[in-house]
Amino acid sequence: MMEQGMRMFIILTCLMLTLIAKAIQAEERGNELARVSVHSTLTELNDFRPGYIYLVVENKTDTLLTVDRIEIAEYPDFIDIRKSSLDTTVVSRKKPVLVYPDKDTVNVGASGIYELFIEASDQLKPGKHLLLFNVLYHGWVPVETQQDTLSVIVRHPMTGSTTKTHEVEVKVFGEGEILGALSNAVTFLMMPGFIMVIVFAMAWKISAPASYQGKLPAWLKEAKIVDLQFWVIAITLSLIMARWIYPILTQLFTSGRRDYLYGYGFYDIVMMWGFSVLMGALSGLIAGGGVSLYRRISYRKAIHGNENPLEFLQKAVALGVKEAWLKKTTLKESGKSGYLIEEDDIEKESLWVIPRVHVLWQASADELYARFEDKIFDDKAILSDVLNTLVDGKKEGHEGKGLQGIEWEKSSHYIEKPLAVKKANLDSLKERENIFSSTMTGQ
User: Fold this and answer.
1) pLDDT band at 336 (very low <50, low <70, confident <90, very high)
2) Which of 132, 173, 252, 305 yields a CA-CA distance of 20 to 30 A from 105?
3) Domains defined for the chain, CATH in brackets
4) Average pLDDT, stretch 266-273?
């Protein structure tokens, strides 16, 4: 049994060696048909700069060599391959083969040149990519055979193939120049947030009030890219742009949805830059404009002291004053009296003090005059109700049955106009009392 097993092992080993030798011999004979080389200056491919790869097939036999086809291994979907720049037919990715139906022949001692036009689409994936070509051909090779007692050289048909590769580095047109201009501070993925933060600060300086322009954090105002706070905001905005905003904006405003997480080109850089600038500018203008609007509204609502009595008291009501009767106080420096129009607050350095208010009614305004008198002498009167009566009086004034005028009362014992008085200059407060006086014309 042991001897039979050894014989079987030896037989199988010899058979395997024979098959391997024949395969090597066939390959060597195939290589005897042709020598294939790759020539190209195309080492860098981008979406605006295509190029050529030349496959040179040299006939090594003494008969005609026929090139059957050139097979191309699977390659990235953003690369297109054609026979030439004038050929409109792109090699199908389902069957990536350049077929030569006329069985293109190469003469003895000559070489055939087969150009491949390589171009990239407008949405690609940067990096190094390998293109693999398999050139298939057939020809005749001399084989020595024995006929009777003579050695005869006869020609036998032989097929062969040669595999060649070419590596190209895919880049996006303009990306290196743009990122280089930014001193390599950012990558393409981080660029949207970087731009938005910078443009926001620029737009803020244009739209915000002068007193607020310098209130931005130093890392934002001075664009300190070494500050972690800057990059926390910039990276967050970049991720939001990449994941949601850019695909949505391209779907709304361009010919179709694009997503640079899966590939991008020069047009994506242009659109992403534009969207980022637009969003940063709009955000900065809205923020600065919002602050300006808030300031204007706050200014109109705030008390300044140059308002007429009705406007002044209406602002006081808007700021929370309810009672029509106010506490009387005296200014230490002048000794004149006035009425405290706002509540004391520990954070306030000064308080508004007003003089008495004199109201003059027209001779025929009996009804409004009587209503006004009833309210101002009620110690529980609400200031807004009193002012409503005055507003009604202004409306009726055009018909001679309303308000003739309203002014700060002139008296040697009272201040002449509203004053913002420092709390240290105020004497002790007295009981609340009526701040209004009124008369009718002709009285």
Assistant:
1) very high
2) 132
3) 28-171 (2.60.40.10), 175-299 (no CATH), 309-440 (no CATH)
4) 92
